[in-house]
Amino acid sequence: MVEILLLQKQAYISEAELYGDFNMLPLVETLDEIEQEFSTYLFLKAIINGVIIGSVRAYQEGDTCYIGRLVVHPKFQRQGIGTRLIREIESIFRTCRRYEIFTGHKSIRNINLYKKLGYKEFQVKEVSPNLQYIYMEKINENLQSNIV
């Protein structure tokens, strides 16, 4: 858990710089808080040479899989690790009707990644004058095609 928390803090520094906000939840989350999430969320990690270089968490509520905190170590970004983590979450939660994820409005790389993976914007929420969350969803087409 400590490794995931440290990775999360490394990965979110660029987001904090983008928004001018170093008090973002991923940067101030404590070990106790992340340990509590282990009881609710499924955590996946990407490992190279015994070191965690990527992570994502998700949980199911009703027919929706909520995906959060996709993080990849800055040295390993843009190598398909985030894509593989998201696809693995979708595979594990394959019985969900939909998947939901959100990111900040200035996080163009994240938005483009999610769009590439089939996610579409469905809601924008203003968090502060400098931050809006873009909520994106993906309908599970495999599940839809099995409905008669």
Walk me through this protein's architecture.
- By secondary structure, the protein is of the alpha+beta class.
- It has a single domain, classed as Aminopeptidase, CATH 3.40.630.30.
- The chain contains 6 helices and 6 strands; from the N terminus they run H-H-H-E-E-E-H-E-H-E-E-H.
- A 6-stranded mixed β-sheet has the order 1-2-3-4-6-5, sandwiched between helices.
- The mean pLDDT is 92.
Helix/strand layout:
Layout: H1 2-19, H2 25-28, H3 31-37, E1 42-48, E2 51-61, E3 64-72, H4 81-92, E4 98-104, H5 108-116, E5 120-128, E6 131-139, H6 141-145
Parallel strand pairs: 3-4
Antiparallel strand pairs: 1-2, 2-3, 4-6, 5-6
Task: Considering the chains and any ligands shown, give keywords for the structure.
37% helix; alpha+beta; 35% strand; 6 helices; Aminopeptidase; globular; 148 residues; 6-stranded mixed sheet; single chain
